[in-house]
Amino acid sequence: MAKNETTLPKGFYRITVLIGLGFFTMGLMDPLYDTYVPIFLEDFLSSRFLIGSIMTLDNLLALFLIPIVSNLSDSTHTRIGRRMPWILVTVPLSGIFFALVPYGALPTGSLLLLIIIIFVLNLAKQAARGPVVALMPDTIPGEYRSEANGVINTMGAIAAIVGTIVLAPLMDLDITLPLIGSTQRRLPFLISGLLVVVATILLFTFVRESAEAKQKRERTKLLDSLKLVFGGEDRSAMLILLSLFFWFLGYQGVLPFMGIYSRQVLGVSEGLAGLSPGAVAIGYMIMAIPSGVIAHRFGRKRVIRFCLGGIIISLALMFFHDPLMTLLGVAPTPAWIVFLVFLFIFGMCWGSVITNSFPMLWQMAHFGNMGIYTGLYYFFSQGAAITSPPLSGAVIDLFTFAFGGTVGLRMIFLYSAVMMTVARIIMGRVHGGEAGQAPAGEDDTVEA
Fold first, then answer.
1. 221-434 in CATH: which number?
2. Burial letters 231-256, b for 16+ CB under 10 A, else e
3. Which end of the chain is more exposed for a tag (fewer CB within 10 A), N or C?
4. What is d(CA 385, CA 403) in angstroms, rounded to the nearest whole number?
5. What residues does each domain of the chain span?
6. Residue 80: CB partners within 8 Å, gap ≥ 6?
7. 256-283, pLDDT tens digit by residue?
């Protein structure tokens, strides 16, 4: 494969970081939401099933809302662009209702109030996600989208680290402030909500959608784009969607159980168990930008398949880790550090896959259906997020019944490795999506 030039346009990182403010807001809210909303719900509900059902609300809304709003934003034409009107409404609204979440959980609140706040929050947050993500390919030329996606994913990872390491400890801080009252259990949500609103103001002030993206075009119907993806001569877009469905099955099947595995099999404390997803996030953050640069030079498909292979190897190492450490007589603390290294490698490879898969799909779209392709990405990834935890949980239960709890929990790594292997095989049949390749199908017609 011929090597491509990697010289970036002037001001590339400045504009990409500013676009990444939208991703930063999502990365800031998501880990705090996932960690503390179940705790708030537990104040009102004793049923874990009901709590879990409420916690799947964001995934269910994302499954349908992101494709719909992304498609609508494709055909939105205003003086400030296509995506920005949606962003200016939905992102601040999500920040405001995120700040209100702990107030619904107060003794003066109620379960109904808390559920209403959670519902509106997720409605706004999932409606925002499509336009926020599609803003980047509308603004950055196709050949530089891997690098840009690396920057944006890095900002999301930094936000997640800020949310979990900097803001989360403030949940215990109990001081009284004017208008706010006691800060206990509220301050991280209030600060995050404020940062989301500020990020939106900065995004609107400094980012302008490209003139080409804002030009009024003949509306691309959702059905026509679906026919192009699933019924056209070039099946590359369909194959990428199927591949990402399987690699998200693998990812979502293993990560929710990582803390339980660390605590029950490796014997670490609950606090240390939280380092498991942290090791993945740090590896993800470190490789997000370099993997985009590498993919520009050597090809997106090649980098994705190489990193899927790295993920499969790291999962195999995690599967054999516990019996091997026991056989070698390694003490628990060094064994735990070795396991974190495997997770770190997993995170590096995972970040490289995510950084380059979205740009491959965008490369097959044009300005008339960029939002539709963005929505399809989330439809398949969120579908996997809903489907996989019950599947991997069933695998754990089956093998626990047959061979005991340790073997049952270790099987999540084998389950994930199988899904990643299927994804890698499918990815091998993809032929499009590289930097510089033209989108397949209809012309990007501009209306007179």
1. 1.20.1250.20
2. eeebbbbbbbbbbbbbbbbbbbbbbb
3. C
4. 27
5. 10-216, 221-434
6. 88, 204, 209
7. 788 778 888 998 875 566 677 778 888 9
